[in-house]
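The material for today's practical consists of a large collection of protein records. Backbone structure tokens are a discrete shorthand for how the chain folds in space. An example says more than a description, so a record of this kind follows:
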Amino acid sequence: MFKQNNLEAKLQNMIAQKEARMNQEITIRDLYVNQVHSLDTYGEAKQLNPQDAQTSLLRLTNHIDILANITNRYHQEYYCEKIESQHGFHDQIKNDCKNKITRLLTNEFSLHTVKPLTLNELSKLLSSIKMIAKSLLPNVHLVLSSLAVVTNDHRLLNMVVYVECGPQAKLHTFCKANPHYLDVKYENTKLFCTQEDKGYPNNYIASKHGFIISNDSVFTIKTEGNAQYKQAVDICFDHYQKHSIQLFENLKNNALLNNFYIIPKQVNQVITANSIRTIEQASLLTPFCDAVHIDPLAPTPNRMENDSIDELELKKLSCIQKQGVQIKSNKDGLIIITPPFAGPYQVVATEEKKLCTYAHSLKKSVEKYNDIIKKRIVASMLNQQHVTKNYENKNVPLRPAKL
């Protein structure tokens, strides 16, 4: 009994160490993308003199490439250092900046094309985005909002891609669950709504033609420094419907299943819209004012002090040179005058902010959930220890418990 209690204490200590790594302090510096002209907040869907629809996919890809590289340049400037190797100099994240994220934000509809993308075009675009992301630094994130995609059964999806950049780039692609009657529409399409399917809210809904549509906009992100946090993204009207709250409740209910994953203590919530007011009842975090709201009608936070990135710095980027893009800077940020997609826009880099913890209404249930999981992990590993002793003279592979 003493040996078992001693082992149990060691396991609990190991879990506590993992939690400490997971819950290291994380900060995010957000870059807000604001269109200069109101019609451009809808991408190219409402332009009076739209460009050629045949070139939409290429121009959209080039546009995203520029946005991504601008974000990467900020990350280089503030969180990286030059390291010399046998292949020359390269950027490396500073040791004390491995839990600092630089993230670009775009508003809902801002990436809508003249005609909605087909599923095949979406697949090509996501492949291109992943290639771009792999060429950039870890801890560089992009909130690409939002794409218009039409399924084979003519349902119109309003999709967001959350991109984690770096050599092991990861894309979280999900669809707006609750369309609004004022959303952008296209000819011969019907707005997709998960409430038409039984069992809402689900993380995934399958269309009649087998295409899997995700509306799972709550997920875990790990930094280069191995800290973790929960990221939630509300797409406009989903916020009013408390979509993230409902998905988070689904996640916690997994404690009733054979789950071994501890929920991080830090959380971030992005509301990408065009246009909506935020409501505290739909917040995952506290204080509610720390939710990030990117919206043409929402105020943009002040530009960071001593922002050293100007047009001369950005003109050195190969994607800017290749596209012949004109740039200028002013007191509020950087103006991209001639982008390849839609119209001119401003990029405003804001001060970095520490991530928050959960709203009071959720915090206790998260702690209860984690207590259940930690006890389950200890019990599993103690059982594994017992099985190992029984089979120590046999070649029986054991599945390791997940920590």
Notes: Confidence is low (pLDDT under 50) at residues 387-403. The chain has one domain: 26-363. The radius of gyration is 23 Å.
